[in-house]
Amino acid sequence: MSDSDKEHNETQNPLHEKYDTEHEIGEDNVELLGMDLHNPVFFTSSFFVIFFVILTLIFPKESSDYYEAAKDWSIANFDWLFMISGNVFVLFCLFLLVSPYGKIRIGGKDAKPDFSILSWFAMLFAAGMGIGLMFWSVAEPVGYFTDWAGTPFNVPPLTEEGRDLAMGATMFHWGLHPWAIYAVVALSLAFFAYNCNLPLTIRSSFYPLFGERVWGVTGNIIDTVAVLATIFGLATSLGFGAQQAASGLHFLFDVPNTITTQLAIIFGVTMVAIFSVVRGLEGGVKILSNINMSLAGILMIFVIIAGSTTLILNGIGSTLVTYVEHIIPLSNWVGREDTDFYSGWTIFYWAWWISWSPFVGMFIARVSKGRTVRQFIGAVLVIPTLLTVVWMSTFGTMGLEQVQNGIGELANGITDKSLALFQMLENLPLGFVTSFIAIVLVLVFFITSSDSGSLVIDSITAGGKIDAPVTQRVFWAVMEGVIAAVLLYGGGEQALGALQAAAITVGLPFSLVLLLMCVSLFLGLRAAYNLNYKNK
To answer: Which domains are assigned to the chain?
Structure first.
């Protein structure tokens, strides 16, 4: 650290003596083409990304088979690890919520939030799972109810019990567990960056456990894996999102759902994301996230009013009750006979959330300075879960009602999961208008994901710098679009599936990383509490 940094820490940061380090942010960086790049994280990550894309394009089927086999092996042999990890993360976050550590403020006692509560929540929610809620809010409960790909606990499909469990199981996959995964990563990064003055990068979370070794090979591996998981996840989502948006455009305007249309959507999303990246958090992500949440709120309120209002409102309560009632059985991994559902849905989701956590966690950390730990857990864990109950109940209830009453295309079950939302909206008043709003939401959610993802990858590959040159953020935004476009054009859905399988496979080793992160965060919070709050 520089002398000025040390002087600042000694007066402002009581954790200075415990977490003092000679490492300076960006000390291993090299300047290249106007960019400030961490060596070797940037170059190693770039090599593996390029290598993977080339290999997938040359051998699309073989690559897909290999990565699918690796994913299936991870899920089949380590389902217990994914389930235990998810449960530990939820319990750990709930402990922090009620423990004395909850009064610790991110950034120190006098830190002030950079964003209003509404803007802060809009950004973290949009980055966390906004696009997934658009894609699966109808398709998932309808899929469970009709036994499209397994039912929870092998409950008979098309029954009242099946209907209740369809909503409860959907909430299980989108409720406390995924948000707890995000919360662990985000709180760790925010605490060690803003309270301990360590670089805003994944490796900093392990300083209490590994000490100065986090600046060496150990830390380089952690950060590189985080970059790969992030860019693979983002590129996969962008590719599949382009397919969903193209399906929606074909559904509404009869625009040909061809590779040309999908590539045009990727190009458009990438261009807007670049514009947003250049404007930064205040002028880009914040504005787009507020637009997202406003449009999503309008769409949800319209569905509640225009749809079966009483049924939806009752469904909100029943979904919450079913979720609470079944959260422990659904969290169990011993003796499960519903293999199709358990492995194909739950374990798949847990691996996906874990692989997605470096990106979402770091972005949430970027915007959470000034909040207490208790406020943080409430906003990242509890409130999103409750809002998701309302969202899933609204759209899922309408989808299930249409199936039960033989209304529209959904009466035939899930024929195309990317169209389920549009098929449900088609049977409500102003179906054309609401479907168009849904398409806009899908696109804007993808733009915010690309934008915030570029900020995250940029920070990691710049050695934890949050003020690296704008060209670096532009570079990563372009890379996400290029990877998605090249794989979609060269290998189609099979190549994107291979990329998704690779990202999920990364979730296996990263689940161990997150468990260690819980231990490290606990040690850090305990030290901060003893120094600043105990007996005071």
So the answer is: 47-142+153-532 (1.10.4160)
Rg (CA), the chain: 23
Q: How many CB atoms lie within 10 A of CB 253?
A: 10
Instruction: Work out the average pLDDT over 485-504.
Output: 78
Instruction: Report the distance separating Cα 153 and Cα 95, nearest Å.
Output: 29
Partnered with residue 31 across adjacent β-strands are 36
Q: Are 128 and 360 in contact (CB under 8 A)?
A: yes
- Residue-wise pLDDT for 362-414, tens only, equals 888 988 999 999 999 998 998 889 989 999 999 999 999 999 999 999 998 88
DSSP string, 32-83: ETTEEEETTHHHHHHHHHHHHHHHHHHSHHHHHHHHHHHHHHHHHHSHHHHH
Output the CA–CA distances (angstroms, integers) from residue 285 to 52, 171, 269, 367, in the order listed: 29, 27, 14, 11
The predicted structure's pLDDT at residue 375: 93
Asked if residues 286 and 448 have their Cβ atoms less than 8 Å apart, the reply is no
What average pLDDT is seen over the chain?
87
- 34: exposed, middle or buried (Cβ count in 10 Å: 0-12, 13-18, 19+): exposed
Residues 273-293 have pLDDT tens digits of: 888 888 877 767 788 888 888
- What sections of 332-419 are H helices per DSSP? 339-341, 348-366, 373-377, 383-404
> Facing residues of 30 across strands?
37
pTM of model > 0.85: yes
Q: Measured in Å, how far apart are the chain's first and last C-alpha atoms?
A: 31
- Side-chain-side CA neighbours of residue 508 (13 Å): 14
Are the C-beta atoms of 396 and 137 separated by less than 8 Å? Answer: yes
Helix 41-58 / helix 217-253 crossing angle, nearest 10 deg: 50
pLDDT band at 232 (very low <50, low <70, confident <90, very high): confident
Share of the chain above pLDDT 70, in %: 95
Number of residues that make up the chain: 536
DSSP letter (8 states) at residue 338: -
The four Cα atoms 408, 411, 413, 419 give a dihedral, to 10 degrees, of: 10
**Residue 2 confidence (pLDDT) above 50:** no
What digits encode the pLDDT tens for the residues 102-156? 999 999 888 899 888 888 888 777 766 667 888 899 999 999 999 998 999 999 9
Residue 204 CA: distances (Å) to CA of 25, 124, 166, 214, 513: 11, 21, 40, 7, 12
Given a contact cutoff of 8 angstroms between Cβ atoms, the answer to whether 489 and 259 are in contact is yes
Does residue 7 surpass a pLDDT of 60?
A: no
Which string of b and e fits 179-205 if b means at least 16 CB within 10 Å?
bbbbbbbbbbbbbbbbbbbbbbbbbbb
More confident residue, 128 or 421: 421
What pairs with residue 38 in β-bridges? 29
CA 528 from chain center: how many Å?
A: 28
